[in-house]
Write a structure and sequence with these properties.
The chain is mainly alpha-helical. The chain has a domain at 24-101. Helices cover 85% and strands 0% of the residues. It has helices at 11-18, 25-111. The radius of gyration is 45 Å and the shape is rod-shaped. The protein starts with 10 loop residues before the first helix and ends with a helix. This is Protein LITTLE ZIPPER 2. InterPro entries: ZPR. It comes from Glycine soja (Wild soybean).
Length: 112
């Protein structure tokens, strides 16, 4: 017959026996201190990461602002150049009309 009942595991007693004894008061204080130090280090690391993210976001926003301003100046310059090109095109049309008129007058005078 088995000395253990069917409800109990034969390893239950062995598992309990393999556990180290409860820590002493001094060991318990050291464990708490280590946990406290680890938690403080984690919090400091989280704060450092947060500062780095904020710094990166600030850098990105500044770069975005500079690019936006540069884009606006390019758009303004483009509008000025379009206006200038339109005026030159009109002047070219006027000169071309004057040239055609002069040439047609010369052709008319030669044929008469």
């Amino acid at each position: 017959m088995c000395s253990f009942s069917s409800e109990q595991s034969p390893y239950l007693f062995l598992g309990f026996a393999l556990h180290p004894p409860w820590p002493s008061k001094r060991q318990h204080q050291h464990l708490r201190l280590n946990i406290h130090k680890r938690r403080r280090a984690q919090l400091q690391e989280a704060r450092r990461r947060k500062r780095m993210i904020i710094l990166k976001l600030t850098e990105i926003k500044m770069r975005n602002l500079k690019l936006y301003m540069e884009n606006q100046s390019i758009i303004e310059e483009n509008q000025k150049l379009r206006k200038q090109a339109m005026l030159l095109h009109k002047e070219n049309d006027v000169l071309l009309f004057q040239l055609q008129k002069k040439l047609s007058e010369q052709n008319n005078s030669k044929t008469n």
